[in-house]
Amino acid sequence: MISSVRGPVLEIGLDHAVVEVGGLGYAVFCTPNTLAGLRRGTEAKLATTLIVREESLTLFGFADVDERELFLLLQTVSGIGPRLALATIAVLEPDTLRRALHDGDLATLQRIPGVGKKSAERLVVELRDKVLVTPATPPVAQVAATGGHRDRVVEALLGLGFTQRPAEQAVDAVLAENPAADPSHLLRTALSSLGRSR
Q1: Which residues does the UniProt record annotate as the domain Helix-hairpin-helix DNA-binding motif class (predicted)?
Q2: Which residues, other chains included, contact 163 with Cβ-Cβ below 8 Å and sequence gap of 6+?
Q3: Percentage of the residues of the chain whose pLDDT score is greater than 70
């Protein structure tokens, strides 16, 4: 398993970054929040995991080991694959996810697109005893949203399986209420809205 990559960021795409390691450029798929913390030309270190499928090898990257471990833990639940696990990490902060699982907070879990009541109940039953709840920490200040963030979040939603028009409408609705929304909040709120409309 490739457990981490470290090197200069060559490219930052809508759902991935390319990190050079030993002369090779690795495409690493990440949440929009992780991508927002990377800068082209600067060195990055990402915790990673390699998902092997018959037709593909896909490398997923995370800001820290904590997110990676949750990503892997989520996939132990029947019906949860890499895409839904990544969407879960994108919508819910690790501590929020753990607390929702620990407390059986189905409403919070159903904010994840593609997770209904039965799926949320299955997540709670299978993972409640496997998560350790930690005290909440103050949120980190982030940059204000810009038109670039809007396009990036829309593309991230497309990468998660939503279609163009609903994705744009969801993002625009969030920006109409909160023009200064940071990328993380923008994505989470849009995902929550799209999840309810399904």
Answers
A1: 72-91, 107-126
A2: none
A3: 90
| CA atoms of 54 and 114, how far apart (whole Å) | 24
pTM comes to 0.66
- What architecture (CATH level 2) is domain 147-197? Orthogonal Bundle (1.10)
What is the fold of 4-62?
OB fold (Dihydrolipoamide Acetyltransferase, E2P) (2.40.50)
Token pair in block for residue 66? 């904590």
Tracing tokens 């940059």 back to the chain, one arrives at 143
**Residue 147: predicted pLDDT:** 55
Topology of domain 65-130, per CATH?
Answer: DNA polymerase; domain 1 (1.10.150)
- Integer Cα distance of 107 and 76 in angstroms: 21
CB 136 within 8 A of CB 97: no
Residues 150-193 have pLDDT tens digits of 888 888 888 777 888 888 888 888 888 887 777 778 888 888 88
Asked if 28 and 50 count as a contact pair (C-beta separation under 8 A), the reply is no
Residues of the chain with CATH 2.40.50.140: 4-62
